[in-house]
Amino acid sequence: MDMKVSAIVPVFNAIETLERAVDSLLIQPEISEVILIDDGSRDGSLELCQKLAQKNSIICVFQHPNGENKGAPASRNLGLKKSNYPWIQFMDADDELLAGKIGSQLQKASPDVPFIVGKFDSEGKEIAIFKDVWAGLLATRLGNTSSNLWNSHWVQKVGGWDESLLNVQEYHLMFELLKINEDVKFSDPVLVHKFPQKNSITNSKNNLLKKRDTYFQFRNKVREFLKENGKYTFIRKHYYTVCTGKMLKYHRPDFKVPLNKFYFLVYNRLKLS
């Protein structure tokens, strides 16, 4: 099997972190091309992309028509169209890979594997992952955009990234993949550093209520799929209920949110005892 990897990096006003991210890609010998997609930057990031491409022949730079800002999912989809290799390292421009990240994950790779879940830390704290893929999906503990390694064939099979989403984008993609192929693999080392940025899409207060609504809608979609397919096991019910109940403490959306209130109440009392 061809084990070459394409790295795809959406770039939006990332001049302070981009070079670190790209350097961390270049130390991965399995990466054969680094595709930088400028997403309408206004801080000099485009010029930095072009400078990096001049220094290294495996780096190429693309933009949306007329230099538009179309968002990270659209930028990843554009990169996917430009890519040439079967495995994809989607990379956020403020993250960093450690040496051996790609190599350790490719040991788990095969054509039938849709993606490989990798561990990461955020501000020095390791983020847990769950080996039950559906529980991990419900709890958003199944890696993230940069820590996972993605099979291009399967990502394209489900239509790529949903460009309408504000957040939870990689979890929607994993949901679509898992609906048709649950043969996910896991790599153990923590080989990705995440550096949360205050003005990132995830952390920004812009559209905050809509982004919170997205979590409820996403988890309910997964719940409904599992119920319809006889896969809504106790552990998956548990994580749906706990994660949803915790969010309802600080945000109540305008739509109805299914919740086993009695189970959540008992869980809270046992946790506090």
What would your notes on this structure say?
With 273 residues, this protein is an alpha/beta fold. The protein folds into two domains: 5-194, Alpha-Beta Complex (Spore Coat Polysaccharide Biosynthesis Protein SpsA, Chain A); 208-272, no CATH class. The protein has ten helices and nine strands. Strands 1, 2, 3, 4, 5, 6, 7, 8 and 9 form a nine-stranded mixed β-sheet that branches. Helix 8 runs antiparallel to helix 9 (234-248) and helix 9 packs across helix 10 (261-272). The longest helix has 21 residues, at 208-228. It is globular. This is Glycosyltransferase involved in cell wall bisynthesis. It comes from Algoriphagus zhangzhouensis. One of its GO terms (molecular function) is transferase activity.
- Give the CATH class of the largest domain: Alpha Beta
**Separation, N- and C-terminal Cα atoms:** 53 Å
Task: Give a count of the beta strands, DSSP E runs of length 2 or more.
Answer: 9
CATH topology of the largest domain: Spore Coat Polysaccharide Biosynthesis Protein SpsA, Chain A
CATH homology group of the largest domain: Spore Coat Polysaccharide Biosynthesis Protein SpsA, Chain A
Structural class: alpha/beta
CATH second-level architecture of the largest domain: Alpha-Beta Complex
Helical stretch tally: 10
Overall spatial form? globular
How much strand? 15-25%
- The tally of domains stands at 2
Unreliable runs: none
Largest sheet: 9 strands, mixed
Mean pLDDT: 95
Radius of gyration: 19 Å
List the helices and strands in order. Answer: EHEHEHEEHEEHEHHEHHH
